[in-house]
Amino acid sequence: MSDSFQRAPFLAGDGDVADLRDAVSAIARAGYCEDAVRERLGLADLCDLHWRDLPVYRDERLAERDPLSLAIDLLLLQGALNPGEVARLLPASSREVLLRTGLLETDETGLARARASLVPVGRRLIFADHAWPELPHPGHATVASDQVMAPGFDSRYLARATFRRPVGSALDLCTGSGVQALLAASHARRVCAVDINPRAVGCTRFNARALGVANLEAVEGDLFEPVGEERFDLITANPPFVPSPLDTLRFRDGGRSGEDVQRRIVAGLPRLLAPGGMAQMVTELGERDGESIAGRLRQWLGGAPMDIHVLRVATHSAAQYAAGHAKGADYASFLDSAGAWAANLRAQGYARVVTVLVAFQWSSPDCGPPWDRIDQSPPPRRAAGDEIEDAFRAERLARTPDIRRPIEENGLLRAGPVAILDASVLGAAIAPKAKARRLGQALEIEHELDPLERQFLAAMEGRFAAPELLRFCRQFDAPEPAVLGAIRSLLRKRLVMIQERG
Ligand SMILES: C[S@@+](CC[C@H](N)C(=O)[O-])C[C@H]1O[C@@H](n2cnc3c(N)ncnc32)[C@H](O)[C@@H]1O
Q: For domain 153-396, which CATH number applies: 3.90.1150.10, 3.40.50.150, 3.40.50.1100, 3.40.50.11810?
């Protein structure tokens, strides 16, 4: 990439739209989608894509120059194609529209480079500014503050965690390239996408046109300000969340605490979330020793009766986080930068920074006071929206005041295949804790089991327990309230479920 790198204008005239759609279809026909690209690059997850490995990808993974390799090189790895390669990837009308709309440029030798990336997220293809605008010196130069962020690990986590049930309306705050809004457009009748950066709004509109998405409106503004009094069934947000000593990147920096934008988003939810709806956010949060993250989120809600589900997917020590964000042209300036990042985290009292997927729903008064629940899992590698919704259902069910009745009426069953991980302790007088994990789930949550839960789960031989379950449970020689307590706990952990009627 040349130093005189120019960014895409993200402007398409009405006359360009049909050709632009054809160009995206031609690229998709080359097999260009998240799974195929990940597989071709030999990655377990596209989140693991790293500029340091560009030579490895090119020399080893893309050696066979078929259309899929060419698309990856040009549109994801910021590489250059010769005229023959471009012609193999794109028909003439597609080449022309990409040149006309400023997404492609050729130099005097005929080499073509993309001025924006086309990033596969699931089966959607999303245009955005390049992930590494600083090539060939990544980490040295500064990135423009109005950079439209290419979908990254955080975008993918949120996209995978978002539920995909049909809904009426969706709102995507901090839309950037529009990735979450474009995904929501496939299951919401109407989507509103908001960003404060006019280039991001332009990019989202451009993407909607290129993908033929007609039910999406992109508007420029500060968070909820452009949407008035409307309430939405789905709200998604991937805000700038990095606790940063700098204020240079609008898509990244969330002020010194990292909370400047996310705090306002959470505070605005009670006004914007429709009854029965769900708000989902990916973010990083600084964590202080002895302080509950869920408590902080609840404080931001300002007393609104909402249930909160927090899924912790990664933890970085303060020093790791500082080193990960530090930049410098030489080692001395890199160390200075790491020192400034670490000092900021210390000043905030943060011992570590955690990556979380947070979901909010209105609380049901039948299930007692609003609750918050924290689970921990490696980041999801595939769609996990159903499982997040299930966590809310399971928590509510576990809080049903008379849990005995639905069990007796409908029967209880194991929620699916479950692995019990028994701990053996040798040479110490500590009670070993068993753990259990549902198999075949996108979220790999390990739950601790107390002895009664362990016994009960293991005794559920078949899929179905008899409706007269409590009699059956007497064999455990435990008082009924204790057995019901164990059942509530197993329901909450989604290890058992109450059979649906019919
Ligand atoms: C981390 S990027 C997320 C992009 C995209 N949603 C995704 O998932 O890839 C954050 C976005 O928030 C936007 N933003 C920052 N402050 C904002 C505000 N007050 N109101 C609306 N958008 C804002 C930035 O311009 C940037 O596009």
A: 3.40.50.150
Q: Is 378 left (phi over 0), alpha (psi -120 to 50) or beta?
A: beta
Asked if residue 136 has a cis previous peptide bond (ω within 30° of 0), the answer is: yes
Coil, strand or helix at 158 = helix
| C-alpha 235 to ligand 1 mean position (Å) | 14
| Three-state secondary structure string covering 24-56 | HHHHHHCCCCHHHHHHHCCCCCHHHCCHHHHHH
Is the pLDDT score of 112 beyond 50? yes
Q: Provide φ and ψ at 32, rounded to 5°.
A: -75, 95
Express as a percent the part of the chain with pLDDT over 90. 71
- For the segment 420-428, the average pLDDT, to the nearest whole number, is 80
- CA dist 72 and 75 (Å) reads 5
Name all residues whose Cβ lies below 6 A of ligand 1. 149, 151, 155, 158, 174-177, 179-180, 194-197, 200, 222-223, 238-240, 250-251, 261
Burial 438-474 (b: 16+ CB within 10 A, else e): beebbbebebebeebbbbbbeebeeeebeeebeeebe
Q: Give the atom of ligand 1 at the shortest distance from the alpha carbon of 155.
A: 8
Domain borders along the chain are 14-119, 153-396, 400-498
pLDDT tens digit string along 36-85?
999 999 999 999 999 889 999 999 999 999 999 999 999 999 999 999 99
Q: Comparing C-alpha atoms, which of 375, 319, 377 is closest to residue 351?
A: 319
Is the pLDDT reported for residue 298 higher than 90? yes
Query: For the segment 210-225, what is each residue's pLDDT rounded down to a tens digit?
Result: 999 999 999 999 999 9
The residue whose CA is least distant from atom 2 of ligand 1 is 251
Q: Rounded to an integer, what distance in angstroms lies between the CA atom of residue 154 and that of residue 158?
A: 6
β-bridge pairing 232-237 and 273-287: parallel
- pLDDT at site 4: 42
The Cα 442–Cα 313 span in angstroms is: 12
Do the beta carbons of residue 334 and residue 236 sit within 8 Å?
no
Q: Ligand 1 atom closest to Cα of 282? A: 8
- Residue 136 has a pLDDT of 65
* Higher-confidence position of 6 and 414: 414
